[in-house]
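Hi everyone, sorry if this is the wrong subforum. Our group has a chain we'd like a structural model of before ordering constructs, and none of us has done structure prediction before. Sequence below.
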Amino acid sequence: MISDWKSMIAEGKTAKVITQLMAQLEAIDEQDYLNDVISISARQQRLKKDVMGEMITGETARISQNKINNALLFTLDELDDDDILTKETETEAEAEAAKDLPPIENIASLDELKDRAKSTLELLEYLRKEETMTVPGKGLFALQKQIEQAEKDLEEAKDKIKNFSQ
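Answer:
Right subforum, don't worry. Here is the predicted structure as tokens:
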């Protein structure tokens, strides 16, 4: 992920990197780095307004953009060094564990069904959050298929819980 963002910066897609990085940091509630990126974002927005308003020259704009890029690259290096974005969250661990769960039709206990529905709902919330941060392509398609399957599993669990009570 970090190497992809660095490539995007090299391609001149700094604003897109800032947006994606802020979303990722918000998702994992990493406030210290988020504040750094918000500050970089503010500098990027201010530069954009100055360029659009012809308040600065092309050379000054290039220098300012390079400073913003360097600050962003430095932040990405710090995130990489601290393994902030590679740490597995509890929800990601639950998603991995969910792959090994028995099929819903094999669950006989009402409490187990309720637990399964709850964990499936948490997985679905996580996947939907990930979907908003995923760039279109193969990864997004796979994520959408996981969401569809989780929605199907949740409905199946709800139906079985409803029928269990009758």
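For your construct planning: The chain has a mean pLDDT of 83. Helices lie at 2-10, 14-27, 31-52, 58-81, 90-98, 110-133, 138-165.
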